[in-house]
Amino acid sequence: PIVNVTEETGVVECTFAIIKPDAMRKGFAAQIKHRILADGFHILQERQLQLSTDIAQEFYAEHLGKPFFEKLTNFMSSGPVTAMVLSRVNAIKAWRSLMGPTNPVAAAEQFPNSLRALYGDKENTTMNATHGSDARLSAQREIKFFFPKRPIFPAPTHQQSHEYIQA
Ligand code: IDP
Questions:
Q1: What residues does the Nucleoside diphosphate kinase-like domain cover (predicted)?
Q2: pTM reported for the whole predicted model
């Protein structure tokens, strides 16, 4: 297989991101995408869609039984979202860190420049502007869920600093 590495340590990964209905409604999608690109990500795939509650429940199946499950899945199906595949060195961690903590109040206290601090609802943890995969396995699952026809590996063409090593 082709292993894609950079001059710095780190492997180019893909992660999955959603701009949630609250941020879409408030018109923050463009600013959020601007921050994504400024942070060195490439947006490999992007689609706007509205989830049914069934699909939202399937997507968040790991949270089934938690007190916020119904509120979360109703909210996630309440309006259009933007779903994206992002790529970068250490994309999974980098996107989680750009988003900030789950709770927008905590985000504002700890990382005032994070997306959830800037665009999340301080009154309501559910409406925290963005979603991001928390690990490689969930990234794979979530990408497949939203982009079923996408090839498994991204084309390694998008950063000049990369060397392509035939492993
Ligand atoms: P994450 O999105 O930061 O990974 P998770 O714990 O996976 O956080 O929760 C998924 C989503 O469920 C959160 O992004 C948020 O929208 C919602 N959520 C999580 N915890 C709470 C809560 O305590 N109250 C209300 N909503 C919550």
A1: 12-154
A2: 0.88
138 in a domain, yes or no? yes
Predicted confidence (pLDDT) per residue in 8-26, tens digit: 568 899 999 999 999 999 9
Check if the beta carbon of residue 77 is closer than 8 Å to that of residue 49. no
Q: How many CA atoms lie within 13 A of 157 on its CB side?
A: 4
Known active-site residue 63: no
State the ipTM, two decimals. 0.98
Which domain covers residue 37, as residue numbers?
A: 2-49+81-151
The verdict on the CB of residue 88 being under 6 Å from ligand 1 is no
Pick the catalytic residue: 42, 63, 131, 158? 131
Confirm whether 86 is domain-assigned.
yes
For residue 158, what are its two tokens? 């998008």
3 CA to centre of ligand 1 in angstroms: 34
Q: Report the CATH number at residue 85.
A: 3.30.70.141
Residue 96's Cβ-side half-sphere holds a number of Cα atoms within 13 Å equal to 13
Atom number, ligand 1, closest to the C-alpha of residue 75: 16
Hey, what's the torsion of the CAs at 161, 163, 164, 167, to 10 degrees?
Answer: -140
Of all protein residues, the one whose alpha carbon is nearest to atom 8 of ligand 1 is 102
